[in-house]
Amino acid sequence: MAVMNIPALPLMRTCRQAAALLVAREDRALRLSDTVALRLHLLACKACPQFENQLLTMRLAMGRWRNDAGEAQGPDSQGLQRPE
Length: 84
Ligand SMILES: [Zn+2]
Hints:
Layout lengths: L14 H13 L4 H13 L3 H21 L16
Helix pairs in contact: 1-2, 1-3
The protein binds zinc ion.
Zinc ion binds next to helix 1.
């Protein structure tokens, strides 16, 4: 597994940082500089694109699970209703 521990350029990220950005991206929009840095890292790294695929697969599975659970509510009402 190729692991880059030393950032060679200001925009380069370590695998740990890239993984953190990938996870954060699931919840919120990244800053432009983070988006660019992440994209550069994914181009240069062999391990992180696999992690990204896992995240995407997980998100798809979660979305499917939510649909199966019959939650047809918009994002605005998310978390407001809890099944008792
Ligand atoms: Zn990496």
